[in-house]
Design goal:
The complex is a heterodimer of chains A (178) and B (93).
Chain A (H helix, E strand, L loop, with lengths): L37 H6 L8 E9 L5 E5 L3 E4 L5 E9 L5 E10 L1 H4 L2 E5 L6 E3 L4 E10 L14 E10 L13
Parallel strand pairs in A: 1-9
Antiparallel strand pairs in A: 1-3, 2-4, 4-8, 5-7, 5-9, 6-8
Chain B lengths: L30 H13 L8 H13 L14 H14 L1
Helix pairs in contact in B: 1-2
Classes of the chains: A mainly beta (178), B mainly alpha (93).
Chain lengths: 178, 93
Amino acid sequence: MQCRDRQPAPTLEPAGPGRGEGIGATGLGGSAVAGHDSDQIETMEPVKDRIIKVTFNADVHASLHWNFRPQQTEIYVVPGETALAFYKAKNSTDKPVIGISTYNVVPFEAGQYFNKIQCFCFEEQRLNPQEEVDMPVFFFIDPEFAEDPRMANVDLITLSYTFFEAKEGHILPLPGYQ
Amino acid sequence: MSTAMNFGSKSFTPRPPDKGAFPLDHLGECKGFKEKFMKCLRENSFENALCRQESKEYLECRMERQLMAKEPLEKLGFKDLIDEKSEAKLKTL
């Protein structure tokens, strides 16, 4: 099951005749964060004097018998620069297992600036018996992080992923999980 | 004047990734590019800025093998690397 065709966030377009809504700078709504569509990625500039250390945690729920771990303990990034990191997962059982993951970012307030372009989360991932795969995370920290006075002393962000087993009939507390 | 969006003291809410999930590279088709990237990180004190060429190559590998939706590299944040490549090409003409 692949979701490559999931639509990216809508780009800003001028409201035309007949359009009920216009997505403008003031219309992002209370739950949205600063737009991180591909136009922003294309034009954003790295804030080279704000080096942030990103560290990585990996957890599995007790019932999931996978070895799951980050492939790097840390990466140094700057806001406005896309970055790649890897986790690795192995199904150490003798049966196929479907897992699904969620993630957490600390400090919480920095999470709004942590933008995942693509990763392995929120989609069921099936590993065959004894199979091991690389799991990439492609992300960036929004350049507005550097302008937020609350973030002035934040130079460490920790990204944690947790894998659960996706069993039929189970409902997991994940955004959009069906 | 209304103030900017106020996130207050909300706890962290995970968001799905912008472009969805990467399909798993079950066959390890891009493993070599991953290894090259990881080696670059280890040799450069894990500084992402010094390994962007390798990360670009990994993502290009995925795009070439249907393991990632094809995107212009500028939209993945690599516009400066493309410019350098074009310049290098011009020099070899």
